Amino acid sequence: MADERKMATKQRLALLLATIIMLGLVVSYSSGSLAGYLSGGTQNENENSESNFEGNIKISGAWALYPMMVKWAEEYQKIHPGVRIDISAGGAGKGMTDALGGLVDIGMVSREIYPSEIERGAVWVACIKDAVVPTANANNPIVDKLVKTGVTKEIFEDIWVVENATTWGQIVGTDAKDKINVYTRSDSCGASETWAKYLGNYKQEDLNGVGVYGDPGIAEAVRNDPLGIGYNNLNYAYDSNTEKPVDGLVVIPLDVNGNGEVDADEDFYSTKSELVDAIISNAYPSPPARELNLVTKEKFSGATKEFVKWILTDGQQYGLETGYIQLSQERLNDGLAKLG
Fold this sequence. Notes:
Radius of gyration: 28 Å
Distance between the termini: 73 Å
CATH class of the largest domain: Alpha Beta
Helix content: 40-55%
Structural class: alpha/beta
CATH topology of the largest domain: D-Maltodextrin-Binding Protein, domain 2
Number of strands: 9
CATH superfamily of the largest domain: Periplasmic binding protein-like II
Strand content: 15-25%
Largest sheet: 9 strands, mixed
């Protein structure tokens, strides 16, 4: 009888041990190895696969980069579902401040990086290219002449900086007395810095006009003012569906050669695709075309580094369809070398 009790006890212990082992296996498989086991792969092989890459990435900054970053995040999360990417726009200045302050992993900055920011630990890579364009209201009283003559850099300078061009007649050489209502950005941003640099190597604070927050804000201000003039990043001046200028806006052609008319080789503003081609061929000058940058403090690492590496390689294919211009392979290689 005692022997039977010993045997039963041993059987219960063996059953309990087997149960513990099975529970351990279930827990292990639920953390990722079960899929590898069922697919025939080893645990190490599947832990190193792209689909198991995980992490949280916080991004803020330039309105110019926001549509592109949203597209990149969507595509990246399709192949890395374990990566969470939070994106907010607020201007290049905010992106730089947040990155250097450790509030985000990546700051989107649509201008050059200043020496003072480098001294504070800013590390950056160029990631894509776009442009700033001048805009007017589609119901402007001289709009038909405006799109035929274009506007020279010098006249734009007179409007935003010198302030001695105050009527629309002065812009197109007529006696029209309609006052120009000038708009600029109130937030620290790359669009303003780029536009100011184009006008004569000025800074954002040199631009005069009514300050409006954000790309959508300045576009809306000009759309609601028949006498308004402003500037926008490319993807806020053109409708992403129709590829034509946003309803209520007209993109003002640059009279690059200063001959008082938009020549055939300067006429590329009807659609976003035409303007993108002009940026690629350098027919549209740089500035106001410019590179857009991703900034972090000290170095890119972990999930952030892998995401940026993908942006500079596979992610470039989404540029044109989103309204941006892919960087040259040389510039992409420079960025990859920075990542290490």
